[in-house]
Design brief:
This protein is α/β, with parallel strands linked by helices. The chain has one domain: Rossmann fold (3-Layer(aba) Sandwich), CATH 3.40.50.1820. It is built from 14 helices and nine strands. The chain has a nine-stranded mixed β-sheet with strand order 1-9-8-7-6-4-5-3-2, with helices on both faces. Pfam families: Abhydrolase_1 (PF00561). GO terms for molecular function: acetylesterase activity; monoacylglycerol lipase activity. Belongs to the AB hydrolase superfamily. AB hydrolase 4 family.
Length: 375
């Protein structure tokens, strides 16, 4: 009896999952202002707007996609060249270049910003899009925040979602070095928040020609509430908080007179870390003040270059009710794409966790538009 039950389950479960994955497949919703240049160019270049997003048959759910991509997707070894960027305050950050054979000063550049604790070599969600861009003949550069990517902190300045000045410095440096090359910024999760806030801060003076924001929280307060619910707290939030603490833990002597370092080390939520470390370090009035300044949803009108955003309904980190679709549809420069499934930065379509997914497709199509058909 038990053997029969197990065999039945082994046969029926994959069939059910396969049928369910087809049942939930749907064309992504997209939001863009009618009659604009952006709408015309997007309809011409973004084939994914008219194609059903079909999640992986054995892994159709957002939480499992996020976990599978994180655990089982490999981090390919790529021949990056490290550059150390020295900031005016004495701090430094590492940026990693991947230049395809035959590239010159006019070759398009994709500038990648990893998520909250990610860096070049440990972020598969960055490395696979980097491969996609490299294979198209584009230069790639991954911007690591201070204290990550193997570059030690030299000052008490770290990074946060509301203060994109380090990225502004690097973007300007790249633009001055390669003034003829078109440049696309591509940010994931918190990296996308930094990119969006940079674009909002600089407006028409941005040193980029386009932006691409993947799975970024539109409202950090609501996102914090979401990931503190039982399942995401158990699976994601406490591990991210631990990683944040581990980043600053070696620098107790650097920070001990500026924060309650023991309280920082006890943090088990991202909100707790932001409250006990980021808020006092950057002089915010409160963590609520920090979250208000970091919020993306209130700044759509400040984006003045073409920018695409990609979010999923089943992403705990970015509740879709915060996405300002009405504001997006009044913008000449922003197009928002929302899928029903895809999780956080995952967007799997194949049974193979390493296979190309929706993010790589969007990068290819949006990059072609920005580099060859928009300006």
């Amino acid at each position: 009896m038990l053997i029969t039950f197990v065999l039945t389950l082994v046969i029926v479960a994959p069939i059910f999952l396969w049928m369910y994955s087809w049942y939930i497949s749907a064309v992504p919703k997209h939001y863009v202002k009618n009659g604009t240049k952006l709408q015309r160019k997007a309809q011409k270049n973004l084939r994914i707007l008219d194609q059903k997003y079909h999640p992986s048959w054995w892994c159709p759910f957002g939480t499992t996609q996020t976990i599978v991509r994180q655990i089982f997707r490999d981090c390919p070894t790529l021949p990056f060249e490290r550059e150390i960027v020295e900031f005016d305050d004495g701090g430094a950050a590492g940026i990693d270049w991947l230049v395809p054979e035959g590239a010159d000063d006019d070759t398009p550049i994709v500038v990648f910003l990893p998520g909250i604790t990610g860096s070049t070599h440990d972020s598969s969600y960055v490395l696979h899009p980097v491969k996609e861009a490299r294979d198209k003949g584009w230069k790639c550069v991954v911007v690591n925040p201070r204290g990550l990517g193997g570059v030690k902190l030299r000052t008490t300045r770290t990074y946060n979602a509301a203060t994109p000045h380090d990225f502004a410095y690097i973007a300007k440096m790249i633009n001055e070095r390669y003034p003829k090359a078109k440049k696309l910024g591509c940010g994931f999760s918190m990296g996308g928040m930094i990119l969006w806030n940079y674009l909002a801060m600089t407006g028409e003076d941005a040193d980029l020609d386009g932006g691409m924001i993947i799975s970024s929280p539109w409202d950090p307060m609501v996102a914090s509430d979401s990931i503190e619910c039982f399942i995401p707290q158990l699976i994601f939030n406490r591990f991210i908080a631990k990683n944040l603490v581990d980043i600053v833990r070696p620098y107790r002597d650097l920070f001990k007179d500026m924060v309650d370092f023991d309280a920082v080390c006890r943090c088990n939520t991202v909100r707790g870390f932001d409250k006990s470390f980021v808020t006092p370090m950057y002089g915010f009035e409160s963590y609520e003040d920090y979250y208000r300044l970091a919020t993306l949803a209130t700044k759509v009108d400040k984006i003045k270059i073409p920018c695409v955003t990609l979010n999923s309904v089943d992403d705990y980190f970015s509740p879709v009710e915060c996405i300002p679709t009405d504001d997006i549809m009044q913008s000449d420069h922003v197009i928002g794409i929302i899928t029903n499934h895809g999780g956080h930065t995952a967007f799997m379509e194949s049974a193979d966790p390493n296979a190309r997914g929706m993010v790589e497709k969007l990068l290819s199509q949006w990059g072609n538009m920005i580099f060859h058909d928009y300006h």
